[in-house]
C-alpha cells in the first residue's frame, strides 16, 4: 500500500479538489470495459497541468508506486484497470480541440477529446478524421492513441497510427517531450511517436496530440446485404477485394447478432438471414456509383439481398445495425465478453466456422460481428459471471479461439490491445525473444516500472494484477497463468 504520508504529498501536489480516495471513488475507477477484472486504486488524481503530471511521475519514481492513466475507461483488454499499489491519473477532463488547421489538414487536440466530437467538428469544415472505433461516442483520443484503435473505416483508411503526426508526452521519469509535427516529411532520428502509439499507457502519458485530417469524401453510399448462407457472405467479401474495390466499410454480423440487434433496435432485419454485410463506399460521385454498381452485382451473384440507403437518415439507420451490435448482445445475459481475433481476410470464413465449433464444444452462446474487410472479428460470449462453471468454459473457449487465429496466420488482438486480458497469450504469438525486447524497451524508458505496471507483459516472473470480480475464480485464473 502507498503510505498516508505519500498520499498526502499527492493530494498537496494536485490540490484537494483534484484528489479522490473515498470508497465510492475507488470502486468507480476499479474497472474499465473489460468484464471479470477489477482492482481498487489507492487514490484518483485529476491534474490541472502538464507540470502536475510531471511532478506526479517524479513522486511515483521516488516513492515506488504505479500510475495508471485513464480516459473514458471504455477499453476491452483491461488496459486502464489499476494495479496493486497504484493511483489512477485522469485525462478525460482535458477535452479541448485546440486547433483545426485547414491549411495543413491537422488538428491539435487534448487527450480527453471524445472521438465522435472531433468527427463532428472537422466534418463541419468539410474534413474527415477517419478512425472510427465502435465506441466513438464515448472513447477519447488519448485512449485511441494508447491502444492504436481501429474501427469501421479501417479497411480503406487505416487505423489511429496512420493519423498521428506528433504528440506532447510526459515520460515515465517526468520529462516532457514533443515529438513529430506538421511537416509532411520528417525522418530526423528515431520515430519516437511510433514507439508510443499503441504502448497502452506503459511508456508515457499523452497530454497533447497532433492528428492528420483528410478532405471529406464527396459522396457516400451505404447498403446492407443479407445472406442465407455464411459462405456466400464470405465469397462476396473475397470478390470485392479481388475486384480491386476498397470500400470505406465492409462489416459482418452473424444470425445471433442479427436477432439481438432486431430485438434491440427494430430495424426490420430479416431474422432468417444467416449473416449480413454492411458495405459503405465513398469518394467522388462517379467512382461511388461505379463501385456500388459492381458491388451490388457481386452481392447478387452470391445470393445476397441488398438494401440501399436512399438518404443520410436511412444510411445512419443501416449503420446502426452494426454500430449497435455490442449493445444489443449485451442485453441478453449479465456478462458479455467481447474479444477481437484477427486473421488474414482469406481466412475469415474458416475462423468463423472454428468459433462455431468451439462454442458448441463448450455449450456457449456466441455472437459474431466485426470488420470482415480486414479480417478483424469480434467473437462475443454471452454469459453470467455468477455461473463459475460457465465462465471457466468461456475461458477455455477463448483460449482455443486465439490459438486457432494464430494457426491461421492471425493475431490475438487487432485493435483492443493486450493489456491484462491477453498478456498470457502474447508470447505464443511473438516468441520469447520479442517479449524480451519489449521488456528491454520498457526497462530503459521506465526503469522503476511506474507507468501502467503489469500490462502487456510482466517485468518479473510473477506480477500481481487485478483480481476477478468473483473471488472464487482466483484459483482458476492463477492456474491458467492469467497474471503471469
Task: Give a verbal description of the structure.
It is a single chain. The radius of gyration is 23 Å and the shape is globular. The longest helix has 20 residues, at 388-407. The protein has three domains: 1-90 and 431-484, Uridine Diphospho-n-acetylenolpyruvylglucosamine Reductase, domain 2 (2-Layer Sandwich); 97-215, Uridine Diphospho-n-acetylenolpyruvylglucosamine Reductase, domain 3; 219-328, Alpha-Beta Plaits (2-Layer Sandwich), CATH 3.30.70.3450. α13 (348-361) packs antiparallel against α14 (388-407) and α15 (423-430) crosses α16. Strands 13, 14, 15, 16, 17, 18, 19 and 20 form an eight-stranded antiparallel beta sheet that branches. Strands 6-7-11-9-10 form a five-stranded antiparallel beta sheet. It has a four-stranded mixed beta sheet with strand order 1-3-5-4. Helix content is 37%, strand content 21%. Mean pLDDT is 94; it is low at 473-484. It is α+β, with helices and mostly antiparallel strands and 484 residues long.
User: How much of the residues is beta strand, in percent?
Assistant: 15-25%
Shape: globular
Tell me the name of the CATH homologous superfamily of the largest domain: Uridine Diphospho-n-acetylenolpyruvylglucosamine Reductase, domain 2
CATH class of the largest domain: Alpha Beta
CATH fold category name of the largest domain: Uridine Diphospho-n-acetylenolpyruvylglucosamine Reductase, domain 2
- Per DSSP E runs of 2 or more residues, the count of β-strands stands at 21
CATH second-level architecture of the largest domain:
2-Layer Sandwich
As for the number of domains, it is: 3
How many helical stretches? 17
Percent helix range: 25-40%
Instruction: State Rg.
Output: 23 Å
Low-pLDDT residue spans: 473-484
**pLDDT averaged over residues:** 94
Largest sheet: 8 strands, antiparallel
Structural class from helices and strands?
alpha+beta
Q: How far is the first residue's CA from the last residue's CA?
A: 21 Å
